[in-house]
Amino acid sequence: MKSAISALAIVVSAATATACNKLDSAPPTAAAQPALAEDDAAKVADATVQTWLSMDAAKIKALYSPSVEAFDFAVPGLSKDKVEFDKRQDAYAAEKLDGAKQLERKIQIVSPDVFIMSGTWVMTSSSTPANNGLVRCTDVFQKDSAGNWPIVNEHCSPPPKAA
Hints:
The protein has a five-stranded mixed beta sheet. By secondary structure, the chain is an alpha+beta fold. The protein has one domain: Nuclear Transport Factor 2, Chain: A, CATH 3.10.450. It is 37% helix and 30% strand. It contains four helices and five strands. It is globular and about 50 Å long. It starts with a helix and ends in a 6-residue tail after the last strand.
């Protein structure tokens, strides 16, 4: 009985090793995706910034994936769903920020379909000076099946006070 179990273990091991070798040596079934150029990601990021600066609520909401997860710098907690998220974007557009200057920006290419834009901003409003201040944001863009780059994750917060 022990020799039958040992023989079976040897056969299973050999079959597993053969299958693994076939997987390792098999040609890829799909062509590798071309790398995302930083210039292309920068164009998407620039267009996104221009849309934010437009203060057009409908255009701003269109930047985001239906399943976006986001931390807003003015509202505690994650949005519960896209409807609540859209209400936050309506409130942002209503703030009438008439000055927004990006102080710094970094783009990180994660894959051909994902990149991250991080940056800091000075935001000003001549009609509501209480809205003036610094904010830092990180946005994750993911290419969809139509070739668009909606934001799938966003985290914005005020930077810590300097010591």
